[in-house]
Structure formats: C-alpha cells, structure tokens
C-alpha cells in the first residue's frame, strides 16, 4: 500500500485494525497465560487493564497515525521535530521484529495441524496420543522450522505485494465465521463433564494467586492483544480517512477483542479439565486441547479444519501488521523498496525465529535467565518492550501534541463529549504512565527493599 493510499471503505479500517488485534494473542496466548496465572483473577485484571489503559492507548496510537498520515518513524518526527522521540518508531520496529520471530513459530503450529487434519491423521486419538503427536511434531526441528518458514513466507508475500487491502476485505466474512465456529466449540465444551471446574477456574477470581508477575503478565497481555506499544496501530491509522470516527473504531476493536478472549476461555477451560490436561501447560495448551474438543463431535474433523483455517487467517492478519509497520518505515511508500524490504526483513525474522522454533525440541534445555529462547523472546516483548513502548506513547501524546489537534482528531467523523476527552488526556498523562511504571518496577522487586 502506498503511503497516501487509504482503506477502501469506512469499514475497511476497523477490519484491518481488528485483524491486527485479533490473532494468537486472544486465542492462543490468553488461555495459556491465564492458565499459568490462576485464571479468574487474571481475567479480571486483564479486563481492567484493557478498558482503563488499553482503550485510551489504542486511541492515542490512532490519533498519532491519522494526524500525520505517515509511517511510524516519520510520524514522531513530524509531531516533535528536532527531538529524539522518533526512536519510538524504531523501538516499535525492533519490538515487532522480535515479536514476529516467535509469533510465526506458533503460526507454524497451526499450519502443521491443518496439514495433519487434511490428511486425516488426527482422527480418534486419546488425549495422551494427541499430546504425543503434537510433542513429537514441535520437537522435530525439520517440522517446526518448515512450518515457521511457511508462515513467514505467506506473510512476506502478502506484505511485499501490498495486497493487505484485499485480505482485509476477506476478513469481512472470515471473522464472522470464526465467531460462529467459536460458538460451536463452546457448545461442545460446555457439554463436557468438567464444565463447572473450567468455568470456576476462568471466572472465579482468587486474588491470592495474583503475584506481581501475574499482574505484569495481564498488563502485557492486554497490550499484546490490542497490538499496542509497537506503533503498528499508528501505521494502520495513517491510512484512515478523516471521516472515520477514531473513538468509535477504538471502542469496537476493544469490544471485539474482549469477546474473543472470553469465547476462547469458554472454549478451552472446560475442556482442559474434562480431558485431564493441565491449565498451566504453557504455550502448548491450546494445541493440546483443541483436537480433543473436536474429536468426539459430529463432523468434528471438518469443523476442526474450518476452525484452523480461520485461526490461521486471523494470525496472519496480525502478522501482516507487524511486518507492514517495519516495511512502511524503510520503504516510505515506494513499491520497489516495499518488495525488497519485505523479503529482507521477513527472511531475517525467519532466521531469528529459528532458536524459538527449536525451543520445543533440541534447545528445550537451553536456558537464558532461566527461560527457553522462546519464553525469553515472548517475555521481553510482552512484558517489557510493549509496556515500555506504551508508556512512552502515553507520555508523548499529551506532552508533544497540541490539545487542539487532539481534540479535532477525536471529533472528526463522530465526536465525543468534552469530558470524555479530558478523561482520556488525564489517563494518558497520569494514570497510564504511573500504572505501567508501578507494575514494571514491582516485578523488578524495587518496592521490596
Ligand atoms: N494483537 C496481535 C495478537 O493478538 C499481536 C500483535 C501485537 C500484532 C503487536 C501487531 C502488533 O495476535
């Protein structure tokens, strides 16, 4: 997409931004991080962060993008010339570089399951057998690296051609189908024997389980699912026409996201307990649970296939936004450069992802700071870099942008009452930076001394 190009329809931007937001974060990451952090209390804090911090920050990124209509680095330069704030664009670039490197590994797992389901080899196994099949696959370097490669290849291909628009149009019907399949999944899950334990785990907050690490994980999770803190949303909103109401767009994206997170939780947790799996199994959780849920239902494998296709689609649309952000910075609207840089950056991301892909096999005993390469990359991105990026963006907007420009951006295409505008600014200026700062430092143990 050229820099001056815009989304094709009013709805186009919401679809694109929702496409960036909805992906592995809500469907794969949320259940496992919630599972590792006690369930209900985690969900509660996650929702709180999403509404109080995520929503205003998402809107902040939208405002930066649309008011400047350019890539993430130039946007900061344009607003705050002769300052170093533009490094926020590079921070976003670096963060999404690392992010996509492990994101694509999980995307690869979906591709693997797709192929397995297509060949009919996932029919009628026991929960233990499913675990073994999956563990064997992800620990096999050839399988995990090729699957990761396929996912990256698709991402590079689409971004290099700048055809996201077409893809975004496809999400107009893909997303509703994904939603329907979730309902099928949930009906199935809610009729399993251990449904009460699953629901209790997900919805009953036990705040004694909330460690400072869990609170940081919830903060990171809410930024991760909304694609906040890496300027991906700055980039996408730079293609938005003025007639679009940014507050409305932000609100719908947050809403859809919360719905998907809850649907994913409803689909997964009753099944976890019913099939004797562990809620704290980590990144493999969703993939251990899914085949069991689809297995004993009528047309199960067909539904599974459809689900995987849509899940892959949702993850790809998020991956596009991560690569797009980086390519937009270096290609600056030039189509030839776009092509070249999509491949250079995309293939480098593939290489960086290899140790993450091997973290479930040959490198599973290789720890840095007590974490596997995959876990370390994920931790750095979700629990450090994204919160830091978000913290800086929340300071940047009220400090560096004129109130009149901010107000005009929020009003254009719809508008919100003055008091909400004030609340928004107040959150950005005070609440968000202080909250993020406290949560980050709490984990570093600064308050314990
Ligand atoms: N929000 C995406 C997801 O939940 C991940 C993402 C983060 C995408 C940051 C772009 C930028 O899967």
TrEMBL record:
<dbReference type="InterPro" id="IPR047218">
    <property type="entry name" value="YocR/YhdH-like"/>
</dbReference>
<feature type="transmembrane region" description="Helical">
    <location>
        <begin position="380"/>
        <end position="399"/>
    </location>
</feature>
<comment type="similarity">
    <text>Belongs to the sodium:neurotransmitter symporter (SNF) (TC 2.A.22) family.</text>
</comment>
<keyword id="KW-0812">Transmembrane</keyword>
<feature type="transmembrane region" description="Helical">
    <location>
        <begin position="214"/>
        <end position="237"/>
    </location>
</feature>
<feature type="transmembrane region" description="Helical">
    <location>
        <begin position="341"/>
        <end position="360"/>
    </location>
</feature>
<feature type="transmembrane region" description="Helical">
    <location>
        <begin position="171"/>
        <end position="191"/>
    </location>
</feature>
<feature type="transmembrane region" description="Helical">
    <location>
        <begin position="249"/>
        <end position="277"/>
    </location>
</feature>
<feature type="transmembrane region" description="Helical">
    <location>
        <begin position="42"/>
        <end position="64"/>
    </location>
</feature>
<keyword id="KW-0769">Symport</keyword>
<keyword id="KW-1133">Transmembrane helix</keyword>
<feature type="transmembrane region" description="Helical">
    <location>
        <begin position="12"/>
        <end position="30"/>
    </location>
</feature>
<dbReference type="InterPro" id="IPR000175">
    <property type="entry name" value="Na/ntran_symport"/>
</dbReference>
<keyword id="KW-0472">Membrane</keyword>
<feature type="transmembrane region" description="Helical">
    <location>
        <begin position="297"/>
        <end position="320"/>
    </location>
</feature>
<feature type="transmembrane region" description="Helical">
    <location>
        <begin position="85"/>
        <end position="112"/>
    </location>
</feature>
<feature type="transmembrane region" description="Helical">
    <location>
        <begin position="132"/>
        <end position="159"/>
    </location>
</feature>
<keyword id="KW-0813">Transport</keyword>
<dbReference type="GO" id="GO:0015293">
    <property type="term" value="F:symporter activity"/>
</dbReference>
<protein>
    <recommendedName>
        <fullName>Transporter</fullName>
    </recommendedName>
</protein>
<dbReference type="GO" id="GO:0016020">
    <property type="term" value="C:membrane"/>
</dbReference>
<feature type="transmembrane region" description="Helical">
    <location>
        <begin position="419"/>
        <end position="441"/>
    </location>
</feature>
<dbReference type="InterPro" id="IPR037272">
    <property type="entry name" value="SNS_sf"/>
</dbReference>
<dbReference type="Pfam" id="PF00209">
    <property type="entry name" value="SNF"/>
</dbReference>
